[in-house]
Write a structure and sequence with these properties.
Blueprint: H1 5-11, H2 14-25, H3 29-46, E1 65-69, E2 76-80, H4 83-98, E3 108-111
Antiparallel strand pairs: 1-2, 1-3
């Protein structure tokens, strides 16, 4: 069962609560940085499997590919374990485009190639 924010606050000692209050009074820079770091850490957990075949991705393997696509205000990022999985995805995008779906040339950007 995940811990709720209220439970977290209840478990902090007085000194930590005072530090958090000071940070919030000064704009919450440290809290914002910590939260952003944790969000990126959680997002990386989801990028450990191939978007096509579901195989676990080794982050240090040079044969991984990442594709960023979508409109500027709603980008999607998918990672693949090998070129053939990425090619299958790209072929699927091309077939959607040729079938008349609303996909523009600039919406797909390949990264890591």
């Amino acid at each position: 069962m995940p811990m709720l924010f209220r439970d977290l606050i209840d478990n902090l000692d007085y000194e930590e609560l005072v530090k958090i209050k000071k940070d919030l009074d000064l704009g919450g820079v440290h809290i914002k940085r910590l939260i952003n770091f944790k969000i990126k850490e959680k997002e990386m957990l989801h990028k450990r499997t191939c978007a096509h075949c579901g195989k676990e991705i080794d982050p240090f393997n040079l044969n991984n590919y990442t594709v960023i696509f979508g409109p500027e205000d709603f980008k999607k990022k998918v990672t693949f374990c090998a070129y053939d999985c990425m090619k299958y995805f790209m072929d699927s995008l091309n077939s959607l485009k040729s079938s008349g779906e609303n996909i523009r040339e600039g919406d797909v950007r390949e990264a890591g190639l």
